[in-house]
């Protein structure tokens, strides 16, 4: 809106327009500062923007994408760049929400009461309460990054109840009738490999970003970060070969970025190996790229055919 348009509206609406303008400016400014990547993590402008907006809005960020696209490593990179402790909750299919909040060690208390050889006061239940990963993030004296990894492994009740806790930033310890309130709202990163659908209420409480697999141009930047002194011809040949092998028909588990990084590391460890070897069809260490037997056998067959020519 230009100044004439602003002046033409009614006086009562001025405050609303100013509020909307300032809110939009605040949200825009969030993309100009904050997290822009890390020493070993390259990200595009869209991912950078959604990370910073989520931190500004204090909303969890849900990340989806095929394995190996850097979902988990993003939380590590945010922690490193913003100098915040990282707390990781590895979700398991059998996990109950209370385990992520706190654990009451009834067995130790029973043993202490039975044998009487502990320095703990068995009448003090708090001595037997240990915070889970979400509880640790809430009780931390400084702002943390809370990574909730592979949320799709959990059942729907776990997912929805967990976000209730994260919305309220508090939970109750039933055994002591105590309410734990977050000292600082953590930066919350949630990952999913899409093994199970997430509920609509869950999705409605998160910001979302799908991390696509890097194209060759972005992959070249990633490899450059990990191998700054890598011969350019070898880098280009390795990336071209990697994408060619990745696009084989019928691959059950396609190699991801971490496999490419490890493969280049293996190539560099091979004495005298050059880009020319790759161009001429020498494809060693297929077991670094492919971890499933049918995929490995198919890759070996293709490598053998290339060497034959």
Helical residue percent band:
40-55%
**What overall form do the CA principal axes indicate?**
elongated
Count of all domains: 3
Tell me the span between the first and last alpha carbons. Answer: 65 Å
Radius of gyration: 25 Å
**Quick one: CATH class of the largest domain?**
Alpha Beta
The biggest sheet, with number of strands, parallel, antiparallel or mixed sense and barrel status, is: 5 strands, parallel
Kindly name the structural category. alpha/beta
Strand order of the largest sheet: 2-5-8-1-9
Order of helices and strands: HHHEHEHEHEHEHEEEHEHHHHHH
What distinguishing features does this structure have?
309 residues, alpha/beta, Rossmann fold, 3 domains, five-stranded parallel beta sheet, 9 strands, 50% helix, disordered N terminus
Outline the structure in words.
It is built from 15 helices and 9 strands. The N terminus is likely disordered. The strands form 3 sheets. Strands 2-5-8-1-9 form a 5-stranded parallel β-sheet, with helices on both faces. Strands 3-4 form a two-stranded antiparallel ribbon. It is an alpha/beta fold. The protein is elongated. The protein has 3 domains: 30 residues, no CATH class; 175 residues, 3-Layer(aba) Sandwich (Rossmann fold), CATH 3.40.50; 93 residues. 24% of the residues are buried.
In short:
The chain has 309 residues and is an alpha/beta fold. It has helices spanning 3-8, 11-30, 45-57, 71-82, 97-101, 106-115, 133-139, 156-168, 200-204, 216-226, 232-246, 257-269, 275-279, 286-289, 293-308, and strands at residues 61-64, 86-90, 102-104, 129-131, 145-149, 170-173, 178-181, 187-192, 207-210.
């Amino acid at each position: 809106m230009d100044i004439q348009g602003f002046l033409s509206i009614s006086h009562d609406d001025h405050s609303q327009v100013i509020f909307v303008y300032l809110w939009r400016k605040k949200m825009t400014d969030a993309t100009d500062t904050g997290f822009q990547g890390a020493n070993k993590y390259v990200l595009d402008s869209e991912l950078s923007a959604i990370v910073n907006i989520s931190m500004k809005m204090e909303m969890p960020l849900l990340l989806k994408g095929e394995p190996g696209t850097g979902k988990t490593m993003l939380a590590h990179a945010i922690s490193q760049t913003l100098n915040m402790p990282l707390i990781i909750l590895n979700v398991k299919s059998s996990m109950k929400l209370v385990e992520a909040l706190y654990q009451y060690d009834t067995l130790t208390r029973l043993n202490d009461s039975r044998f009487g050889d502990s320095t703990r006061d068995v009448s003090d239940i708090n001595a037997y309460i240990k915070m889970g990963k979400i509880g640790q993030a809430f009780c931390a004296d400084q702002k943390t990054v809370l990574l909730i990894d592979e949320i799709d492994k959990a059942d729907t009740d776990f997912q929805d109840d967990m976000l209730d806790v994260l919305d309220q930033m508090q939970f109750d310890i039933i055994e002591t009738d105590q309410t734990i309130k977050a000292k600082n709202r953590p930066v919350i990163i949630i990952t999913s490999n899409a093994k199970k659908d997430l509920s609509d209420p869950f999705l409605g409480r998160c910001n979302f970003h799908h991390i696509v697999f890097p194209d060759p141009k972005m992959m070249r930047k990633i490899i450059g970060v990990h191998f700054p002194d890598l011969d350019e011809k070898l880098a280009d040949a390795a990336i071209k070969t990697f994408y060619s092998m990745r696009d084989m028909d019928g691959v059950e588990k396609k190699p991801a970025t971490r496999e490419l990084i490890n493969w280049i590391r293996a190539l560099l460890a091979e004495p005298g190996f050059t880009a020319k070897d790759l161009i001429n069809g020498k494809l060693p260490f297929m077991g670094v790229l492919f971890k499933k037997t049918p995929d490995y056998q198919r890759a070996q067959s293709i490598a053998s055919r290339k060497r034959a020519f």
